[in-house]
Design goal:
elongated; 2 helices; 9 strands; alpha/beta; about 140 residues
């Protein structure tokens, strides 16, 4: 009889431990087939990637974690006129080379990129082959 009580107690504690363990663990990152998004306009639009074009801001919004965004060379800089580009997921952003792919922030109150994920795992972001100009923010931002 005493052995049966101990067995139930141990089983109950094991179940409680497993419930607590799975409740407190951060969610696992999901894996999917990575897609490649290509920026097709230097304008800073935010109405979705479609046949009319895909801005860098729109590509970041449309991309899933793990996707790659390609920013091709252009004679004109990719000009940001809105706030910074907020990235809260794992992404790779690749330009065609320094001096060939230029991202310019025209608003001195904003940075070009703001990378973070409030309440979640920090994103892993790789940015290469770009020149960033006129980036700045007020000291308290």
């Amino acid at each position: 009889m005493e052995q049966a009580k101990n067995s139930r107690r141990i089983r109950g504690r094991s179940i409680l431990f497993m419930v607590l363990l799975f409740t407190l663990l951060p969610p696992a990152r999901t894996v999917h087939a990575a897609a490649n998004w290509t920026v097709t306009t230097t304008a800073d639009t935010n109405d979705g990637c479609d046949a009319a074009g895909c801005s860098l801001r729109e590509a970041i919004g449309a991309a899933a974690p793990g996707d790659t965004i390609t920013v091709p060379a252009d004679a004109n800089p990719y000009t940001l006129s809105q706030s910074h580009l907020f990235i809260n997921k794992d992404l790779t952003i690749t330009g065609s080379g320094m001096g060939s792919t230029i991202i310019e922030q025209t608003n001195p109150h904003f940075r070009v990129f703001d990378i973070g994920n409030l309440g979640g795992l920090p994103p892993v972001v790789s940015i290469s082959g770009l020149t960033i100009t006129a980036s700045g923010a007020w000291p308290w931002m």
